[in-house]
Amino acid sequence: MLAIWKRELESYFKTTIGYVFMGFFLLVSGILFTFNNLFSGNGDIPGMLSSFSMVPIFLMPVLTMRLFSEERKNKSEQLLLTSPLSLASIVAGKFLAAFTVWLATLVGTLLFVVIVGAYGTLFWGEIVASYIGFLLMGACFIAVGELISASTENQVTAAVISIGVNFFLWVIDSVIYVVPGQFVSSVLEWFSIYARFDPFARAQLGFSGILYFLSFSMVFLFLTIRVIDKRRWSEG
C-alpha cells in the first residue's frame, strides 16, 4: 500500500494535477476569505470553511479522475492488478495519495486562520471541529471519485460524473422532501453529506458525524474493490 501511495503522490506533482488542484483551491478560497472575512471584519473560522464547502464538489474530481481511468487507458491496469499487492492495498494506496494532497491543501488555508488570529481572538475548539469535518467531507468525495474512476477509462467522463454525483450528494436534503415513501427518504438521507457536515460547520464535534464520514468512505472504497475485482475476472 505504501508503494502505491508513494507512486501516486509523486505522480500528482510530476504532472500539473497536484499544483492545479492546490493552487486553484487556495485561489478560490482566498478570494472568498477576502470578501467574506477580511472586508467585513468577520473572524468566524467555521463560517469561513462553510463558505468554502462548495469548492471541493467541483474541484475534487481533478484529483480522482485519473486514479484508475489512466491505468485503463494506458493498458497498465493488468500489470498493476497482477502484482503481489492486494486489491484493497491498491485502492487504499490511491485513496491515501489523493487524501494527502487534500490534507496538504487544507494546511495551506491555515494562513487564513493566522491572519484572523493577528486581528482577533481564535477559538481553537471551533477551529479544530470545523477542520476535521471539512477534511472528512473531502475524504468522502475522494472515495466517490475513486469508484467512478474505476468504472470508466475516460478521465473527462469520470470527472463530469463525479461532479454530478458530488453535487447530488450535497443537495440531497432538498430532494428528500419531494420523494414519496419513508424508506426511500431514509435511504437518501443516509447519503446526505451536508446534513453531517453542518454540525461541524457550527463547531460541533461529534462522534456520530466522524463515524458517518468514515463509514461513507469505507463503503465506497469497498465498492471500488468489488468493481475492479469483477472486471479482473471478467477480462480474464
Q: Strand tally, please?
A: 0
Radius of gyration: 19 Å
**Strand residue percentage:** under 5%
Low-confidence stretches: none
Q: What portion of residues is helical?
A: over 70%
> What characteristic shape results from the CA principal axes?
globular
Taking the sheet with the most strands, its summary is: none
Q: Tell me the span between the first and last alpha carbons.
A: 24 Å
Mean pLDDT over all positions: 86
Q: Which sequence of SSEs, written as H and E, runs from N to C?
A: HHHHHHHHHHHHH
Sheet/helix structural class: mainly alpha
How many domains?
A: 1
Helix count equals 13
Write up what this structure looks like.
This protein is mainly α and 236 residues long. It has one domain (2-234). Helices cover 81% and strands 0% of the residues. The chain has helices at 2-14, 17-38, 45-52, 55-64, 69-73, 77-81, 87-108, 110-119, 124-150, 155-176, 182-190, 193-201, 207-234.
Brief summary of the model shown:
With 236 residues, the chain is mostly helical. The chain contains 13 helices and no strands. It has helices at 2-14, 17-38, 45-52, 55-64, 69-73, 77-81, 87-108, 110-119, 124-150, 155-176, 182-190, 193-201, 207-234.
Fold blueprint:
Blueprint: H1 2-14, H2 17-38, H3 45-52, H4 55-64, H5 69-73, H6 77-81, H7 87-108, H8 110-119, H9 124-150, H10 155-176, H11 182-190, H12 193-201, H13 207-234
Relevant terms:
236 residues; 13 helices
